[in-house]
Amino acid sequence: LPIRLPGAVPDFRALQAANLRRSWLAVSLLWALLGAAGAGIGVGVVLWEGVRPPWHGGVLGAAVGMMLALLATVVAFMRGETATLAMLRAEDPPEEAARRIHNVLDELTLAAGVRRPTLHWIDDAYPNACAIGIHGHPGHICVTRGLTEMLERDELAGVVAHELAHLKHEDATFATVTATLYGSFYFLRELSADLIEVSILRNVRSHEPRTSVGRHGKHMPLGVFIGIFGWIVFALMSVVAYLVVLSASRSREWMADMAAVEITRDPAALADALEKIAGSGRRSLVASRAVQHLYFVNPFPAGASLFALLSTHPPIEERVRLLRQMSGPSAKPAGSRPA
Amino acid sequence: MGMLIVLGIVVVIALWAVAAYNGLIGGRNAIRNAWSQIDVQLRRRHDLVPNLVEAVKDAMDFEQETLTRVIEARNQAVRVHDGDPKAMAAAESMLGRELGRLMAVVEQYPELKAHAHVARLLEELTTTENRIGFARQYHNDNVLIYNNRVQMFPSSIIAGLGGFKLENYLEIEDGARTTPRVDLR
Predict the structure, then answer these.
(1) Could you give the 3-state DSSP secondary structure of residue B179?
(2) Total-model pTM
(3) Contact A113 B178 (CB under 8 A)
(4) What is the chain A residue with the closest CA to B106?
(5) A99 vs B120: CB contact, 8 Å cut-off?
(6) Is B105 on the interface with A (CB under 8 A)?
(7) Which residues pair with B145 in a beta bridge?
(8) d(Cα A58, Cα A43) in Å, to the nearest integer?
């Protein structure tokens, strides 16, 4: 299909292939990180006990970490859609708001020639949307209350088309798997914190604490040590994992914008939607860092320029600029906008 | 050795021919599927018009002519629906224009638009117009891809041998539909 797009846009196939390579790299890196975290904790524990050689702990820890990564990936493929929807607190859309958005989704499904994804609703004032899906399923699209409140019909269509593009180009599969893997770092960190608490409580309650004596004669429950060490490791690792996820996430957003225009043929409405969202001044109350890369726009607006560099999304102004360039001054005849 | 090379070339050509043939069949099926979607949406519009006219006619006493023209255009579209595609497209374009005019008139009656039943019908009409437009866009995109295959060398050889004909674009004008602001074709 010869698509004539001005500017530096895009060979979809090449972009898609590049994205796929990046996805595999990112998932492998997340696996390696979990393995490394396990190895680190294993070595730490063995050093603390000072009985066996450290590499025993390292190998065992790495094995446990990789097993966890494998488990998380399998879980992501089998239960990732449900788990992520739960993380997003997605529910069925309420009756009065549902009709228009259901209709918009039906229309775009016809335009894109894809199977219809399930529509969900997030009760959040921040205008946003996201796509969740695993390869081979029609997938899910979530919109927030703020989005349906603020946007006109054609703008809403632009946003939903962007999400439909994520599903069509398999971005959603990758995003769902990384969300689950990335989520497991959070989970393990919280688990470490719980371990500290439980170990201390136990130590206080029983008069004869299960203390492990380190080779330097320190007295500290093993659980507390693992907890603190694990918390530090997983906190550091989640920062690294964040960088990995964002490296694969940005180019997808560009591509989904372009693919959305291919569906709606209306770059101006998508640009309008982005500008409205950027200027809304609203804040998200329910979004979590673990799922931020799933969204249409990053629910955590970057303040300083350093954070802009570390964002999962390209800056909104850049996205708007490219879309405006595509629509051009001549492509928007006066009065073409419906009331 | 020479035999093997010849055999290899023959196998490659045969594989390519099968792939090209299947591509043409797939393209033609995609067009048929897209056409049936348009058909569904056009019928949906035919069913919707009487309900809409019924809902607004009391409040629009002095716009009876607009309503009559919409009904007439609708009946004409129903009559020629299964006939000649050209006549069908013309009748549907007419219906789209008349509905667009009706929508513009309804815009002048705020109390009518505020009525829940009318609002629902107007939303139905909007989405149906959009669906027709998008289904047509998808159909015509598929026709473009397919026709390119039929005409471009070397797949044109297979198209000629297999008797694949060029498909027609569907030209139904947008009536009440949001006018798309860019044409990517």
Answers:
(1) coil
(2) 0.76
(3) no
(4) A339
(5) yes
(6) no
(7) none
(8) 5
Q: Which residues of B touch A153 (CB under 8 A)?
A: 126, 178
DSSP B168: P
ipTM of the complex in this document? 0.79
**Structure confidence by residue, pLDDT tens digits, A20-76:** 777 788 788 888 888 888 888 888 878 777 777 778 888 888 888 888 888 888 887
Burial of A181 from C-beta contacts in 10 A (0-12 / 13-18 / 19+): buried
Q: CA-CA distance, A246 to B94, in Å (whole number)? A: 51
**Catalytic site residue from A49, A95, A152, A163:** A163
A328 to A5, A181, A237, A335: CA distances (angstroms): 11, 41, 44, 16
Percent of chain A whose pLDDT exceeds 90: 9
Helices (DSSP H) in B57-84: which residue ranges?
64-79
The string over A129-139, giving b where at least 16 C-beta atoms fall within 10 Å of a residue's C-beta and e elsewhere, is bbbbbbeeeeb
Tell me the pLDDT tens digit for each residue of A167-184: 888 788 887 787 777 777
Residue A275: active-site member: no
Non-local (6+) Cβ contacts of A155 within 8 A are A269, A270, A272, A273, A276
- Chains A–B, number of C-beta pairs less than 8 Å apart: 74
Q: For residue B82, how many C-alpha atoms fall within 13 Å in the half-sphere facing its CB?
A: 0
- Given the DSSP bridges, would you call strands A118-122 and A140-144 parallel, antiparallel or unpaired? parallel
The rounded distance, in Å, linking the Cα atoms of A102 and A283 is 25
What residue of B is the nearest CA neighbor of A112?
B138
Task: Enter the tokens of residue A116.
Answer: 């219809």
Confidence category of residue B62, pLDDT binned at 50, 70, 90: low
Burial class (CB in 10 A: 0-12, 13-18, 19+), A294: buried
Residue where the block lists tokens 């136990």: A202
What is the pairing mode between strands A219-221 and A140-144? unpaired
The number of beta carbons lying within 10 Å of the beta carbon of residue B33 is 13
Look at B145 and A333 and tell me if their CB atoms are within 8 Å: no
